[in-house]
Specification:
This protein is of the alpha+beta class. It is 31% helix and 26% strand. The protein has three helices and four strands. It has helices at 16-24, 38-41, 52-62; strands spanning 4-11, 42-49, 67-68, 74-75. The protein is elongated and about 50 Å long. The two termini are 14 Å apart.
């Protein structure tokens, strides 16, 4: 089976609530008055894998202390 390219989204440490508020609830400022933006709450890793499960596993191994936002990760090629 050939590999495809996946974009796997990772939530920055301690930013789980901010990430969900920003992306899922469209909240632009957190309770501390900090302006939320994509680079603040998370980042994307691009990996080659057989499927999304393998892509997520690769990224989780690389960033074991962080949470992968599987629902915002996808195949791109």
């Amino acid at each position: 089976m050939s590999k495809s390219t996946y974009m796997v989204t990772v939530i920055r440490e301690g930013r789980e609530k901010d990430y969900r508020d920003f992306w899922d609830r469209e909240i632009k400022v957190n309770s501390d008055g900090e302006e939320l933006h994509p680079a603040l709450v998370g980042f994307t890793e691009v990996v080659e894998a057989k499927n999304l499960n393998e892509a997520v596993a690769i990224v989780q191994k690389k960033h074991p202390a962080l949470i992968v936002a599987r629902d915002h990760s996808a195949k791109v090629g």
